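Practice problem: predict the structure.
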Amino acid sequence: MNSPWTETVKAELLSLTQAQPPITYDAIAERLNEKFGTTFTKNACIGRSRRLAVSKQRAEGTGVYERKKKIRTKAEWHPALQDDKRTFDCRQITELDNTDCHWPINDGKPFLFCGRHTAVAPYCATHTKLAYPAAGRH
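Answer:
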């Protein structure tokens, strides 16, 4: 099976990703499709350019290609935590005992857990609200 990503198409993709002023991947896909008679999507162009190791410098300061995610605490995005202004104790699993909250607070490297003292294992009062919401509440 022949790939539509010929060397000519890849070269054009690279030149379009380096264009000044920067253009969106949606526009890049549209231009490639018009020029080569292909049916590439925006996401196909993003994936291929990443595999071709396109410089990420073009995204800096433009806001056109990638948005930097604002890192938020769980208290900022979860209503049950709005009233809880305390910080997490942030411990690894090996540092926790049966009286510490085992609620995960990140996605790894290393995995960190709340670590606050708990009256009833495995979660502190705040995380118990999240784990076991009151009946009838959505």
